[in-house]
Amino acid sequence: MKFYIGTTTLVFAALLCMAIADKRYLLYDCNPGEGFNLRRDVYMRIANMVKNLREQKECKGDDWVLVLPPWGRIGYHWKERDMEQSKIPWSKFFDIPSLAKHVPVIEYDDYVEEIGDAKVDEIWYLQRYEEGWSSGNWEDKMHERPCIDQPVYESEGNSDKIRGWFWGFEETYANKFKCVSVQGSSKIFFGPLCGANTTAQSIMLDRGENILHDMFGGKDYWDCRRSMRFSKELVEEANEFRKKHFGSNDEADKTVMPEDWTEHKCTEGDALGGPYIAAHLRRKDFLYARKDQVPDLEKVAKVLKEKMQEYKVNKVFIASDGTKEEMAQLKTLLPEMVMYKPTKEKKKAFKMGGVAIIDQIICSHARYFTGTKESTFSFRIQEEREIMCFSKDMTFNRICSDQEPKDCEQPTKWKIVWNSDSEIWQ
């Protein structure tokens, strides 16, 4: 009996080693200055790259897995003092099993445990082409080139190990590093990653924001976006707030969705929304970077009061990065406004990313939503509402500034794609 168990154990261990040997891991990172919601978009680009790599004939036999880059302090957006915001796992913000229904994913800590070392075989530092569009026409291309800027990675003394930021994990190192000029979508990586340029088990693509979507707004885009369900902890907090302040719940609001996103499908107009309207008001840097597009608070209050009357509700939820003084002024002009203000304990538990997601969940369930032009925060809310099948007229809106005509340009009305890549926008 002991011999039988030992043999079984050895066979299992051998099979496990074979499975790990077949695995190839893709890691990535972004420019430190990129915001939370842009990083969510970069995830979609990389996730769909992994999905397509797994389907390439050239990569047959390669079990590609996406390693999720830990969240850390984001320069402009996450400046909260007295709050640890490094090495944050994706499970803090997103439902990992839901992500895995679209493409195999693994947290960074699990990756280190699985390979038995805190290392990356190769780093490809993505950069622009120094000469720009030399031909004057856009073309997808990629070449290994000398680094244009000073790399943020360096060799460790006489060691072959290459050190860098690596999301704050000081023990992590890489074996090889190179700069790669890239222009185009993830398709140009298929050949190089499938044996043409490397057979490394793990490759990290730094500055992943330089990779474009293969099909922005297509079925893979929306499947990936639908898989990005938020963590149950954040959803529960947002739902409790909706219930307490607005008497809102999914059954009454007609926003119930199955736990498995692959089983969800609806038709535009199915969702009703809670008995409140919502607005995202981006302030801070937009006040000088896009000052001609930002309405003053008096205009905001006037328009939102009109919308409350139109939708026969008496409360409006505000998500904003405005100062305390600005929000106090708006409260004077708009007494019906409500904001999500977590306790210090909850803020530390949810982190700034979690607080932002809770704001987005509450906005996405409102009867009517208006956002800020060119804000990825607003865009993510519009996507959530499109997934829940709200009317587009209740979703793709913004308040015109005094410098713009009354019929100023409204957000593009993106249409969700369930089964095909047709009719992406209207």
Instruction: Figure out the total of helices.
Output: 13
Could you tell me the mean pLDDT? Answer: 89
Secondary structure category: alpha/beta
**Could you give the order of strands across the largest sheet?**
3-2-1-9-4-8-5
Strand elements, count: 13
Beta-strand portion reads 15-25%
Low-confidence stretches: 1-19
Shape label? globular
Largest sheet: 7 strands, mixed
In N-to-C order, the SSE pattern is HEHEHEHEEEEEHEHHHEHHEHEHEH
Intertermini distance: 69 Å
Commentary on this structure:
- With 426 residues, the protein is α/β, with parallel strands linked by helices.
- The chain is built from 13 helices and 13 strands.
- The strands form 3 sheets. The chain has a 7-stranded mixed sheet. Strands 12-11-10-13 form a 4-stranded parallel sheet, with helices on both faces. Strands 6-7 form a two-stranded antiparallel ribbon.
- Helix 2 links the parallel strand 1 and strand 2.
- Helix 7 packs across helix 12.
- The radius of gyration is 24 Å and the shape is globular.
- The N and C termini lie far apart (69 Å).
- The relative contact order is 0.12.
Provide a short characterization of the protein structure.
The chain is α/β, with parallel strands linked by helices. The protein contains 13 helices and 13 strands. The chain has helices spanning 2-22, 36-55, 96-100, 108-115, 190-196, 219-227, 232-246, 250-253, 286-289, 297-310, 324-333, 344-364, 376-387, and strands at residues 23-28, 63-68, 105-107, 119-127, 141-144, 154-155, 162-163, 173-183, 202-206, 274-281, 316-320, 337-338, 366-370.
